[in-house]
Amino acid sequence: xxxxxxxxxxxxxxxxxxxxxxxxxxxxxxxxxxxxxxxxxxxxxxxxxxxxxxxxxxxxxxxxxxxxxxxxxxxxxxxxxxxxxxxxxxxxxxxxxxxxxxxxxxxxxxxxxxxxxxxxxxxxxxxxxxxxxxxxxxxxxxxxxxxxxxxxxxxxxxxxxxxxxxxxxxxxxxxxxxxxxxxxxxxxxxxxxxxxxxxxxxxxxxxxxxxxxxxxxxxxxxxxxxxxxxxxxxxxxxxxxxxxxxxxxxxxxxxxxxxxxxxxxxxxxxxxxxxxxxxxxxxxxxxxxxxxxxxxxxxxxxxxxxxxxxxxxxxxxxxxxxxxxxxxxxxxxxxxxxxxxxxxxxxxxxxxxxxxx
Length: 357
Hints:
Elements: H1 2-22, E1 38-44, H2 48-59, E2 66-73, H3 79-86, E3 91-96, H4 105-116, E4 121-125, E5 129-131, H5 136-142, E6 150-152, H6 163-184, E7 196-199, H7 200-205, H8 221-227, E8 233-235, E9 243-245, H9 251-263, H10 270-287, H11 295-320, H12 329-349
Parallel strand pairs: 1-2, 1-4, 2-3, 6-8
Antiparallel strand pairs: 4-7, 5-9, 6-7
């Protein structure tokens, strides 16, 4: 009985991996269309050091019709003085001193930044990110046609070679592998606010974040849940389209961050909750029963399972632009199977989860 359950779980994981990996065949590069005007919008709370690194990189973009809007959320670290000192015509600074009751700090700051923009599109990212190339906005623009209202990009984590950061990089890759392939399949369910394009008029017409303004996090997930469809959503991948981000340096900060991310999942649609349960449940059951079996009985099956994942992830990696350290695949896949359910439970129990104090 247990062996049959294990084989079923393995089969589900293999099937999901193949199904999602082949979706990347659907992605076709496109030539540059007419340039739309774009505002890069960043909500920042005491991010002076990160802004010093990021702003010069953003201003190097070869795209012509863009500006950068920094929504400074209750900053006290000299961010405003630094940004004002740059005296850049493409840079606009919005100082926010308080958040209205009933609003999450980050969503309010982003909303103010988006409302300030007068351009056709807004592209969201975070202060601790860095564009991989000077052609980031050019590639994003190439995904936009008359039907497009949302562009889902990829924002991989960098790694300093430590196991923690390699694991975070793997976890970020798996998250992107899932949401990008589902979007290519015509079923978008989330994005990441570190590399996300939204038609500004569409954002305003749909009410933006107003329906879930009080919920911590979800400025990306919940907006996509509510508004994305097969017809209005496009995927943006490839090395020059990436917006890289820094992972946490210790387990405590990473667990806090991941708890915040997963706390939004309770607001997903029933269909998306079930699909996540199927993926995470089958992943856990692919590893948990193994100690109960003899190695002679399961070794070839485990190798087959890992080879399928390696091939599927490597193919997706070739399309997405960045992958992870594949040496760790067996260990990080096992850890992810155990880690995710624990953090999901923690996200239900912890009440005081914050973006920034």
